[in-house]
Amino acid sequence: METPNNATISAKIAEESVTCDESIKGYVEPRFECPICLTWLRDPVLTTCGHKFCSQCIYTWLEKEGACCPVDSRPLKSGSDLFRDLYTSREISQKRTTCPYRQFGCQVELSPVDMETHISQCTYRRNLLESQVQNTNNAMSAESKLWDPPPKNGTQITDREEPSPDWQQLLKNLYERIVVLEQENRELSITVSNQKNQLAIMCLRNCNGVYIWRLKSFQEKLTAMINDPLKMFYSPGFYTSQNGYKICARINISSKNSNYLSLLLHIMKSENDDALDWPFNGTMYFVLVHPQDTEKNICEITSSRPDLEAFRKPTCELNKRSFGYTEFVHVCDISNFLQHDSLIFRIEVRAHNLRYS
User: Fold this and answer.
1) In what order do the strands lie in the sheet with 282-288?
2) Residues 125, 49: Cα–Cα separation, whole Å
3) What CATH number has the domain spanning 6-137+173-200?
4) What is the pLDDT, as a whole number, of residue 18?
5) Alpha-carbon distance 37 to 41, whole Å?
6) pLDDT value, residue 195
7) What does the alpha-carbon distance between residue 130 and residue 147 come to, in Å, rounded to a whole number?
8) What pairs with residue 187 in β-bridges?
9) From 220's CA, which of 126, 211, 230, 272 has a CA 20 to 30 Å away?
10) Angle at Cα 212 formed by Cα 208 and Cα 213, nearest 5°?
11) Band of residue 332 on the pLDDT scale cut at 50, 70, 90
């Protein structure tokens, strides 16, 4: 029986390393991937906004990055908005993957999460690492030669037609580095996206009750509303002041006359409600902006009525009752206000019963 030489051992180690990388760090089903660490979900939790994270990842994120979801930036409270996802945990635990050292004799089959713990203790892995130590000096020497300049006489090195095992190990190291950089880039992209969302929220909070609502691709929206009279479009929530009332606008085909477009307001639930006066007392301005001539703007002004449910303190995300104009503009006149297939509304809400509104 022939005794395997160092090159054979190195080749096996390189082959084993690639297999390990594919099994543990390779493809993860999207529904089982944590958006923060980008690996298999560990002790998964589900947020009230419908996203899954590793328990440790999301709690650390909320503590360091602020109490908001990393995916959609919705506010999250660690005590009330996170729930253990036992169903997903069972799904992952029922999956089986073989040990990457199986070709060397290990017959263990475990879930992807448990497999990482097993690998650190695998007897076959330790045996291979001991063999690898014997070739460390040769590997370092080969790696250093990779950066040597080519011979000045232009001669070709003919004894390297195929990558040696040490080349394979170096390529693997470079591949792993690329994976790490891609992960860091993805995390950075998520951070930038969250910062943009936070900036947009700050703008809505500090608009002092004046919101410019630009509805792009309006013809498509109008067609959808005509085909489905129950179809509605809502604006983002904006505030009458930094710590004031939260409002959103709504458009839809009028339920009274299908030839008209309705423009209405909803009072939304906010973190300030317990400190505000109810029912809401204020004045509302509705303006459909003409793109060429402001004198052709359609303007309507109205005041709140304390007896209406629409102005009471919200008990859900937004008041079920709205207030505004059910026949604000005739559908046939909409084309006169379109520019680049966009429609622009200016909504102004002034609260009267807040001294510093």
Assistant:
1) 210-215, 343-351, 282-288, 298-303
2) 42
3) 3.30.40.10
4) 33
5) 9
6) 78
7) 28
8) none
9) 211
10) 130
11) very high
Q: Sorting pLDDT into bands at 50, 70 and 90, what band is 335? A: very high
pLDDT digit string (tens) for 19-62? 333 344 445 677 888 888 888 888 999 999 989 999 988 888 88
For residues 106 and 100, what is the distance between their CA atoms, to the nearest angstrom? 8
Phi, psi (degrees; rounded to nearest 5) at 35: -65, -15
Contact 100, 66 (CB under 8 A): no
pLDDT tens sequence across 121-151? 787 777 766 665 555 545 455 545 544 555 5
Give me the residue label for tokens 């004799």.
105
Distance CA 296, CA 221 (A): 23
pLDDT digits (tens, 9 = 90+) for 1-20: 444 444 343 333 333 333 33
Q: How far is CA 50 from CA 74, 82, 214, in A?
A: 11, 10, 28
Instruction: Name residue 245's amino acid.
Output: Y
216: which DSSP letter?
A: S
For residue 67, what are the contacts with CB-CB under 8 A and spacing of at least 6? Answer: 75, 76, 77, 78
Query: E strand or H helix at 224, and its extent?
Result: helix 218-227
CA distance 56 to 75: 18
Looking at domain 210-351, its CATH class is: mainly beta
Task: Compare 156 and 294 and report the one with higher pLDDT.
Answer: 294
Asked if 6-137+173-200 and 210-351 have one fold, the answer is no
Number of alpha carbons in the 13 Å side-chain half-sphere of residue 131: 19
Amino acid identity of residue 17, one-letter, is S
- CA dist 58 and 48 (Å) reads 13
Domain borders along the chain are: 6-137+173-200, 210-351
Which of the 8 DSSP states describes residue 331? G
Within 8 A by CB and 6+ apart from 287, the residues are 297, 298, 299, 300, 345, 346, 347, 348
Contact indicator for 325, 300 with CB cutoff of 8 Å: yes
Place of tokens 């030669």: 145
Tokens of 150: 């080519």
